[in-house]
């Protein structure tokens, strides 16, 4: 925090007395107390048992497309992280918060194993990972510790333990209604509903599908929004309601121009790309 507040330029560190440090830049001097280095936690000695390599942009993508759906309430601590699951030469990264499930899938040649990384660690990794395709990250697991080697950085993290949510049951559920929507248009529309909401005033946003049209409606004590946008839908009129922030989070992390909305037995919304299955997002009404 001190360095962030300093002007751009060279910062000089000077230990003028034992455990007393001056930080100087131009005409600014901070004096702070230090801590004996012997009190610093010893880094764990790990053997890097299970490990795999993945490009930094790809790791950044799989984390970014799932992190938003991690649970923030510790009723089940293991859900406060994302599960990395390698099975049948495929990497799945899964986040669950009880309302949403975000799944990102990529091919990866490796033996089957899995682990759960805390959300805080994943947030730090996002800051370190680059978009340079030539850079490779190494992910290693030894007992209950994870090691992430990224460029000149090595991040150690305790992994979360416990029974993770069995997302495979939901994946197998068939969908009975399908629509194709423009991501940017719908994001802008849903974002407008937030002007009618605050911490005290909450209301779901209604989606009504009919004749290649999606009607988005939200009404609160502040006012109401009623907008129609085009979509690809030819079934009977269908109406369902969602938390606008949850839908907005999901749309922001699709990284697509258009997506499919699949409705699973009228009990959940499933968002997938037009082609392939690189990501899947579930959201309860």
Automatic annotation (TrEMBL):
Main location, first listed in the record: cytoplasm
Keywords attached to this entry: Cytoplasm, DNA replication, DNA-binding, DNA-directed DNA polymerase, Nucleotidyltransferase, Transferase
Domain DNA polymerase III beta sliding clamp C-terminal: 175-279
PANTHER family for this protein: BETA SLIDING CLAMP, DNA POLYMERASE III SUBUNIT BETA
MF term (GO), any: DNA-directed DNA polymerase activity
InterPro entries per UniProt: DNA_clamp_sf, DNA_polIII_beta, DNA_polIII_beta_C, DNA_polIII_beta_cen
Source species: human gut metagenome
Gene Ontology biological-process annotations: DNA strand elongation involved in DNA replication
GO cellular component, one term: cytoplasm
Ranges where the DNA polymerase III beta sliding clamp central domain occurs: 54-164
Full protein name: DNA polymerase III, beta subunit
Family: Belongs to the beta sliding clamp family.
Location in or out of the cell: Cytoplasm
């Amino acid at each position: 925090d001190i360095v962030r507040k300093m002007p751009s330029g060279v910062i000089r560190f000077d230990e003028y007395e034992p455990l007393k440090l001056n930080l100087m830049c131009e005409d600014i001097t901070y004096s702070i107390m230090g801590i004996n280095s012997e009190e610093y936690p010893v880094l764990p000695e790990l053997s890097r048992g299970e490990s795999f390599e993945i490009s930094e942009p790809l790791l950044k993508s799989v984390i970014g497309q799932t992190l938003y759906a991690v649970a923030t309430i510790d009723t089940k601590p293991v859900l406060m992280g994302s599960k990395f699951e390698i099975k049948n030469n495929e990497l799945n990264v899964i986040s669950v918060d009880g309302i949403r499930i975000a799944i990102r899938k990529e091919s990866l040649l490796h033996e089957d194993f899995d682990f759960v990384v805390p959300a805080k660690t994943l947030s730090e990794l996002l800051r370190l990972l680059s978009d340079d395709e030539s850079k490779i990250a190494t992910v290693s697991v030894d007992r209950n510790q994870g090691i992430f080697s990224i460029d000149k950085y090595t991040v150690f993290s305790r992994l979360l333990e416990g029974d993770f949510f069995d997302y495979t049951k939901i994946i197998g559920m068939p969908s009975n209604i399908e629509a194709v929507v423009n991501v940017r248009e719908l994001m802008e529309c849903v974002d407008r509903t937030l002007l009618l909401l605050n911490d005290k005033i909450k209301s779901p946003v209604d989606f009504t599908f009919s004749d290649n049209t999606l009607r988005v409606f939200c009404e609160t004590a502040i006012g109401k929004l009623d907008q129609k946008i085009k979509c690809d839908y030819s079934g009977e009129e269908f109406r369902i309601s969602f938390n606008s922030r949850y839908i907005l989070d999901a749309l922001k992390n699709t990284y697509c121009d258009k997506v499919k909305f699949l409705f699973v037995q009228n009990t959940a919304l499933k968002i997938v790309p037009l082609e392939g299955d690189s990501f899947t997002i579930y959201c309860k009404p």
